[in-house]
Amino acid sequence: MKKILVPTIDWPASSDAAYRIAEIADAIQADVVVLFVVQSLNGESYRRGNLSIEIFEEAAQDYDFSVDGFIMMGDPMKIICRMAEKTNADLILLGATEEDDWSQFSPDFDGFSNCQVELLASYSPDA
Q1: To the nearest 10°, the Cα dihedral for 96, 110, 24, 57?
Q2: What is the CATH number of the domain that holds 110?
Q3: pLDDT in tens, the chain (127 residues)
Q4: 45 lies in which domain range?
């Protein structure tokens, strides 16, 4: 089974995004690994991380794939690549809205240069 790594940083993914990713996962017969990355781990960030994972688990109920979720603290680029390797992800799917710092998700960003996984970045200004 293929795996898609979906990192979210500091704020839960939207339900709309989770369902779009669910459609992709279903179409390519892939499981989803949700990675919630925070700069500091506290009660609020832990709550938001669990919410993000739950949003994907809810979307998965309408499709045929599983969801694994992780909440980790540290530098997002390093953690994303490390988790992609650890989970044997086939694809990293990054998304951002106009409120996110899009530059940190640039595919040619140095943080991804050593990451041996395909990267798909999507920008949605209206999300």
Answers
A1: -70
A2: 3.40.50.620
A3: 799 999 987 676 778 888 989 999 999 999 999 999 888 889 998 898 999 899 999 999 989 899 999 999 988 888 898 999 999 999 998 876 555 554 554 545 556 667 788 877 776 655 4
A4: 2-123
d(CA 81, CA 78): 5
At 16, which helix (H) or strand (E)? helix 15-28
Strands in 2-9's sheet, in edge-to-edge order, are 67-73, 30-38, 2-9, 91-96, 118-123
pTM: 0.84
Please say whether the beta carbons of 4 and 91 come within 8 A. Answer: yes
Total domain count, the chain? 1
User: Going by C-beta distance under 8 Å and a sequence separation of 6 or more, which residues neighbour residue 79?
Assistant: 7, 35, 37, 72
